[in-house]
Design a protein that fits this description.
The complex is a heterodimer of chains A (107) and B (118). Helices cover 0% and strands 48% of the residues of chain A. By secondary structure, chain A is mostly beta strands. Chain B has 118 residues and is mainly β. Helix content of chain B is 0%, strand content 53%. Chain B is built from no helices and 11 strands. In chain B, the strands form 2 sheets. In chain B, strands 2, 4, 5, 6, 9, 10 and 11 form a 7-stranded mixed β-sheet that branches. In chain B, strands 1-3-8-7 form a 4-stranded antiparallel β-sheet, with no helix packed on it. The N and C termini of chain B lie far apart (40 Å). Classes of the chains: A mainly beta (107), B mainly beta (118). The A-B interface holds A 1, 32, 34, 36, 38, 43-46, 48-50, 55, 87, 89, 91-92, 94-101 and B 35, 37, 44-47, 50, 58-61, 94, 96, 98, 102-106, 108-111.
Chain lengths: 107, 118
């Protein structure tokens, strides 16, 4: 099974800050990597697919990069509605594992 | 408009069975890769199972042999039959769609809560 390791598990940031979350796969997954945002009590929302492609309707302040084993989600300027949990997921092979999540909190 | 609506959750004793349903509208279930994902209280996301367009099925090790994913094309509905339930199966269960193999899950249901009492 492919293990996905996300870091940090939580962070505190201010509105306007640039935020970077990393995700590492235990083996190469090419660009079969997605990022999700989840707010309390809600279903996850797809932000980025295929490592760097912005899902339709997602603000351009979100971006993704990486390939192979190392990936990054960047929020260029944190907005109040961006305070949430974020998860990476590999879709290279079953089981389709998620990272442990990153909770972005208000500083 | 694309929608996924889960139902069938509830409180069940350990060892019991439940069948979850995921009714889809706005697209055809059998033409997509349909998944179940769960989230235990206060925990992260855990992928549970997928059914491919061709009917192949795959499961997480934690549920293999106990859960079965299926679909009814006439009802455009995805199911998850859960047997031999354990306390650690307590979670919100989501169905989610992937439009192509290897793509992200672009549509999710609102979730249904399963609570297994020991």
């Amino acid at each position: 099974d492919i293990q996905m390791t996300q870091s940090p598990s939580s962070l505190s940031a201010s509105v306007g800050d640039r935020v970077t979350i990393t995700c590492r796969a235990s083996q190469s997954i090419s660009t079969f990597l997605s990022w999700y945002q989840q707010k309390p009590g809600k279903a996850p929302k797809l932000l980025i697919y295929a490592a760097s492609n912005l899902q339709s309707g997602v603000p351009s302040g979100f971006s993704g990069s990486g390939s192979g084993t190392d990936f990054t989600l960047t929020i260029s300027s944190l907005q109040p509605e961006d305070f949430a949990s974020y998860y990476c997921q590999q879709t290279y092979s079953t089981p389709l594992t998620f990272g442990g999540g990153t909770k972005v909190e208000i500083k | 408009e694309i929608q996924l609506v889960e139902s069938g959750g509830g409180l069940i004793q350990a060892g019991g069975s439940l069948r979850l349903s995921c009714a889809a509208s706005g697209f055809t279930v059998s033409n997509n890769y349909m998944n179940w994902v769960r989230q235990a209280p206060g925990k992260g996301l855990e992928w549970v199972s997928v059914m491919y367009t061709g009917g192949s099925t795959f499961y997480a090790d934690s549920v293999k042999g106990r859960f079965t994913i299926s679909r009814d094309n006439s009802k455009n509905t995805l199911y998850l039959q859960m047997n031999s339930l354990r306390a650690e199966d307590t979670a919100v269960y989501y169905c989610a769609r992937a439009s192509t193999l290897g793509s992200g899950f672009d549509y999710w249901g609102q979730g249904t809560v399963v609570t297994v009492s020991s």
